[in-house]
Amino acid sequence: MKRDPLGAAGLPIVLPPRPVVLGRAGWMAFVAALLVVCALAPVLNLAVPAGSVFHLSDYAVALVGRIMCYAICALAMDLIWGYTGILSLGHGLFFALGGYAMGMYLMRQIGRDGNYKSDLPDFMVFLDWKSLPWHWTFSDSFAATLFLIVAVPGVVAFVFGYFAFRSRIKGVYFSIITQAMTFAAMLLFFRNETGFGGNNGFTDFKRILGTPIATPTMRMLLFVLSGVALLGFYLFARWLVASKFGRVLLAIRDAETRVMFSGYNPVGYKLTIWTLSAIMCGVAGALYVPQVGIINPGEMSPANSIEIAIWAAVGGRATLIGPIVGAFLVSGAKSWLTVAAPEIWLYFLGALFIAVTLFLPEGVVGLVNKFRRRPA
User: Fold this and answer.
1) Is 259 among the domain residues?
2) Domain that holds residue 293
3) Number of domain units in the chain
4) pLDDT in tens, 84-143
5) d(Cα 180, Cα 90) in Å, to the nearest integer?
6) Which of 69, 325, 328, 352 could form a disulfide with 315 if both were Cys (CB 3.0 to 4.6 A apart)?
7) What pairing do the DSSP bridges indicate for beta strands 202-203 and 294-295?
8) What does residue 52 show for φ and ψ, rounded to 5 degrees?
9) What is the pLDDT of residue 1?
10) Does some domain include residue 169?
11) How far apart are CA 286 and CA 357, in angstroms?
C-alpha cells in the first residue's frame, strides 16, 4: 500500500494498490497461448504428416480460426455489456462492415480470373455495371483497406452512439434500437444497386497480396493472425478495465446517476468504449472473411448479434476470459449440432440461454470461480 504523507489535516492517505494487468500465472498462461498459436499449431499442421495422430487437420485450423474471430466479438461485447452495462444487439453489423471492407479488396484481387474475364467483379458484370461505384475507389489498395476496416465500423458506431447516448437512451430501448439498426443495414445490403453483391455478397476469392488464398501456408498465416489479434485484444482489454477509465465504466454500469453527481460525464466514456468495441468487431470480421471465403448480408442478421450476446452470457460477463470461453463452447457445439442434428440447433441455443440466465447468472467462468473459492 502506498502512503501519501501530505494528506489533509496531517493524516496519511492510504491509496489502493495499482491494479496489475496480469499476474505471474496470467502472464505464463498468456505466453503459453501465444506459443500454441504461433509455433505449435503451425508445426502440427504444416510439418506433421497427415497420417499422424498429432496432425492438426485443415478443417480444425479453419474451425478454430473462425471461432477465434468470434471470440474477439465476444470480448468486445463484454467490454460494452459486462463492464458498462449496455446490451447491444447490433454488434453483428460492425463485424459485417469489417468483413465487407476486406471482401471488397479480395474481390479486386481476383482481377481477370473471374468467370467474365473482366476488371469488374463478376456480379457487377452480370448486373451490367459499366464502372466501379465511388465507394470502391480505394478497394484495390491493401493499406486503404486496413484503414477502412477500422474507420468504417468506428465512424458508424461513433455517429450512432453520439446521438443515442446524448439522448440518454438506455436499457431495453437501446437494445431494440441497435437491433433495428443492424436489420435496416441488412436490408440495404441485400439491394443489388448498392454495389455490395446483393443476396450473394462476395465470394470466390483467389488471392491476398498477390498470394493464393487457398494454400495451407496462407490458411495458417490467417489462423496465426486471428490468434495474435485475439490475444492482443485480450491484453488491451485487461489493461483498459484495470485503468481509471475501466473503473469509471464499472461505476457507470452500477450507478450512472452517482457518476454524474461525482462530476463525470458518462456520455464520453460510453461513446469511447462503444466505438472501441465496434472497431474490435470490424477487425474480427476482416480476419473472418478470407478464412471462410464468403461475406453476405446474412452476417448482419439480428440473430448473429444475439448470438454474440449469448457467448458473453454463457462464458461469464465482466470476466474477459469468460466470453472467449463462451464463444468456443457455443460455436463448437453449433459446428457439431448443425451437422449431427441441424433441426434442433436453434432450440438448443434458446434453451442454453434460458438455462444460463436462470441457473448460471455468472456464466461458466463464474461457476468455476465459485468452486475454487469454496473451502476444502
Assistant:
1) yes
2) 61-297
3) 1
4) 999 999 999 999 999 999 999 999 999 888 888 888 999 999 888 989 999 999 999 999
5) 8
6) 325
7) antiparallel
8) -80, 150
9) 46
10) yes
11) 31
Has residue 109 been placed in a domain?
yes
User: What local confidence, expressed as pLDDT, does residue 31 receive?
Assistant: 96
8 three-class SS: helix
C-alpha cell at 208: 491476398
Low-confidence ranges of the chain (pLDDT < 50): 1-2
Cα(276)–Cα(58) distance, rounded to whole angstroms? 32
Cα–Cα dist 68/227, whole Å: 6
Contact 314, 329 (CB under 8 A): yes
Per-residue model confidence (pLDDT) at position 343: 82
Burial of 51 (0-12, 13-18, 19+ CB in 10 A): exposed
Cell of 227: 490468434
At residue 360, the pLDDT reads 81
Q: Among residues 238, 289, 234, which one has the least CA distance to residue 98?
A: 289
pLDDT (0 to 100) of residue 15: 54
The predicted pLDDT at position 345 comes to 79
* DSSP-derived secondary structure for 41-104: HHIIIIIS-TTSTT---HHHHHHHHHHHHHHHHHHHHIIIIITT----S-HHHHHHHHHHHHHH
Rounded alpha-carbon distances, angstroms, from residue 296 to 206, 239, 278, 339: 17, 34, 19, 22
Residue 147 counted as domain residue: yes
Question: pTM of the entire structure?
Answer: 0.93
SS3 content of the chain, % helix, strand, coil (to 5): 70, 5, 25
The residue assigned the cell 475501466 is 246
